[in-house]
């Protein structure tokens, strides 16, 4: 069995070969993946209603030495962004814990940003000939939103990749007079290092935004901004990253008040002329 498979995938592949008691324990594990990192073998046995020997036998069938290895596996899955676990059926979400984590993520993001990095990023966003915003997979929505907000106050803001296209088309003519914002959050396609290195090699200054897993690529960036996305739920939360988008775009607007007002007025005029917005 491939060791790269997570425990849920391993259970899926082996389920038909498990004994009824092993299936019972496997069912409990699948229903409680989010809590797996805190259960001992004894607790798993008690909660699933089987013997500890059954749990140990199941772990070995799945390619694990013991419960400790399973706990470490579960922790590594969540830290890499794999959406494991969830709220048990019928249970209500712990909104208080969710709020605490969201506020902590936002505080860490903005504390890490600070006035100096914000000024550096703003300068790149307003003084560059063009700005290309890059987002792949989970990062695409963030890139799209930043592009739309920046475009309110300045021309020459591009989104990459365009549907059906690759990154190269967008950077063939870019150089030190331009800027790039690259979102690099975890669970991204392979090759972010090559992407940011290639953009930087053209002389294009990069604002790199990501969670801690993207910190290794900060050497290629003119500005590195870390946004925690940890969540009490199985899914990552991008609230701090979306707040950062608001901060960057708002500061870019404020840095060019006359140009921004002129452009916004022209856009609003077209909205009215084309009847595009419900006001």
From TrEMBL:
InterPro entries: Homeodomain-like_sf, HTH_RpiR, RpiR-like, SIS_dom, SIS_dom_sf, WH-like_DNA-bd_sf. This is MurR/RpiR family transcriptional regulator. Gene3D superfamilies: Glucose-6-phosphate isomerase like protein, domain 1, Winged helix-like DNA-binding domain superfamily/Winged helix DNA-binding domain. It holds the Pfam family HTH_6. SUPFAM superfamilies: Homeodomain-like (SSF46689), SIS domain (SSF53697). Residues 5-81 form the HTH rpiR-type domain. It comes from the Bacteria.
């Amino acid at each position: 069995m491939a060791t790269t498979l997570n425990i849920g995938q391993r259970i899926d592949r082996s389920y038909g070969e498990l004994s009824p008691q092993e299936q019972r324990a496997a069912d409990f594990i699948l229903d409680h993946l989010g809590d797996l990192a805190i259960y001992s073998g004894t607790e798993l046995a008690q909660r699933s209603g089987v013997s500890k020997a059954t749990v140990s036998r199941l772990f070995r069938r799945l390619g694990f030495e013991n419960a400790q290895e399973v706990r470490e596996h579960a922790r590594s899955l969540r830290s890499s962004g794999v959406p494991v676990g969830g709220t048990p059926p019928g249970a209500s979400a712990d909104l208080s814990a969710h709020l605490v984590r969201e506020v902590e993520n936002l505080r860490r993001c903005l504390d890490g940003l600070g006035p100096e990095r914000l000024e550096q990023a703003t300068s790149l966003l307003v003084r560059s000939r063009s700005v290309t915003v890059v987002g792949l997979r989970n990062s695409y929505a963030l890139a799209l939103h930043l592009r739309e907000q920046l475009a309110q106050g300045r021309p020459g803001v591009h989104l990459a990749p365009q549907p059906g296209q690759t990154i190269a088309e967008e950077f063939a003519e870019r150089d030190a007079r331009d800027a790039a914002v690259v979102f690099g959050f975890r669970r991204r396609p392979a090759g972010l290092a090559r992407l940011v290195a290639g953009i930087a090699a053209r002389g294009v200054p990069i604002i790199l935004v990501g969670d801690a897993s993207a910190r290794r690529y900060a050497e290629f960036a003119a500005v590195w901004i870390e946004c925690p996305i940890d969540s009490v739920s199985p899914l990552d939360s991008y609230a701090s990253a979306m707040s950062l988008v608001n901060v960057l775009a708002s500061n870019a607007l404020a840095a060019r008040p006359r140009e921004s007002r002129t452009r916004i007025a022209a856009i609003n005029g077209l909205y009215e002329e084309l009847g595009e917005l419900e006001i």
